[in-house]
Amino acid sequence: MRRLVVSLCSFALILVSLTSLSSAAPPDVSYYSMKLPAGLTIGDLIREGYDVGHGTLIATPSEVERLRARGVVLGKTGDVYQPVPRSEPGGTTYYGGYRTTAGHEQHNATVASEHPDLVKLYDIGDSWKKVRGQGGHDIQALCITKLATGDCALNSTGKKPKFVLHTQIHAREIATGEIAYRWIDLLVTSYGVDPEITALLDTRELWVVPIANPDGVDVVASNPSRPVLQRKNVDNSAGGCPAADAGVDLNRNSSFQWDVQQGGPCDETYPGAKAVSEPETVAIQGLLDTIFPDTKGEVGEPAAATTTGVMLSLHSFGNDILAPYGYTNTDAPDKAKLVALGKKMGEFTGYPVSTGDGGVGYFAPGATDDWLYGTRGVPAYTFEIGPASGACAGFLPAYSCVSSTFWPALKPALVYAAKAAAAPYGKLPVTSG
């Protein structure tokens, strides 16, 4: 997630203590708005061990007391944890119905087995723990289409335009993986039934990476009633950090505009020791590099008008659509067209569209979506899912919000994005609602 500043005018920030996260006993934490006194900056809070990188505002009661004593004005905006029945680790769901990594893997295998004419399931790489023989997972990707010769091959020569949905790269943004789960089900159950979805599968390759950070999701789900607020992967090779603070931010680790200044090993935006240091990044970037041809020259040059494809990377939260570039306020050469497509998708979600740090308050060098647009010219967007307050806000919204709020808005946006993949820089499809 890119949102650091909810409102610069009111200095509403996000706050979470890095020292208080524990898989055994998640802390008593809540969301707060915050107004900083003179002399205290975001950088100060980061250096003191607070995470101010995600548009959430999370603090324990003791942290709230300490910050108020320093003149910080705090206002509680909601609870991090929503009420759910207590449950034990080890199942395929947690926190009221969210799927674990194992639950997603079972689902992927089932749809591939039951719909061999529509689905190819790929192992595109390994998680950090699996590389080191510590358990871990494969990184899985599904290609969904009405399969014909040459479809869903791991090359860039296929005739069908490609739409990619990429979710849960930040492990604690749990609603995003559920959207991928429902998108997969919609596609495989609607072929031959729904004319619109049937036409999509006849003419598009619909790629899905439902869990881009599986080791991190395992940590989140390790306490099923009060999920752990794990954002990064679990790479602890840098050393010097408590277990709860170790890891690399996979959305800062790509080879496009990677920035060593994004944070140290214990920070939530730590970009890794070098670009593409993490096996999860190798897997995702490798897939995108394989299936999309390069239609773009230098960073300052526009993509070819004939470029096909669209990618959406889902994050939480803030109800935003973020278009390239996210690493700078310098306009992308295709900014007008990127924003135009973003606004079309925003007609379904109600989310505004921004670029750079406009509306989000900070930059995200090394992000996946910037990599795809910056190197391949393919329109790629971050969607920040969820409001700023209420039961459907935050990283851990009530599971009922997926059906009541998120999926109804995102389903038509995903369909529209898949349609637009045929000519994203050309005449956009007409919206039907």
- Could you state the order of secondary-structure elements as H and E? EEEEHEEHEEEHEHEEHHEHHEEHEHEH
Major sheet: size, sense and barrel closure?
A: 8 strands, mixed
Q: Tally the beta strands.
A: 17
Poorly predicted ranges: 1-25
| Outline type | globular
* Sheet with most strands: strand arrangement: 10-11-13-12-14-17-15-16
Alpha-beta content class:
alpha/beta
Give the helix tally: 11
Helical content band: 25-40%
Rounded mean pLDDT is 89
Rg of Cα set:
20 Å
Question: Strand share of the residues?
Answer: 15-25%
Distance between the termini: 28 Å
Describe the structure.
- With 433 residues, this protein is an alpha/beta fold.
- The protein contains 11 helices and 17 strands.
- β1 and β2 form a beta hairpin.
- α5 crosses α11.
- The N terminus is likely disordered.
In short:
Helix content is about 30%, strand content about 15%.
Write the layout of secondary structure elements.
Layout: E1 5-7, E2 12-13, E3 16-17, E4 30-35, H1 42-47, E5 50-51, E6 58-59, H2 61-69, E7 73-79, E8 93-94, E9 98-99, H3 101-114, E10 119-126, H4 128-131, E11 138-144, E12 162-167, H5 175-190, H6 195-203, E13 205-209, H7 214-220, H8 279-291, E14 310-315, E15 320-322, H9 335-349, E16 353-354, H10 368-376, E17 380-384, H11 400-420
Parallel strand pairs: 12-13, 12-14, 14-17, 15-16
Antiparallel strand pairs: 1-2, 3-5, 4-6, 4-7, 8-9, 10-11, 11-13, 15-17
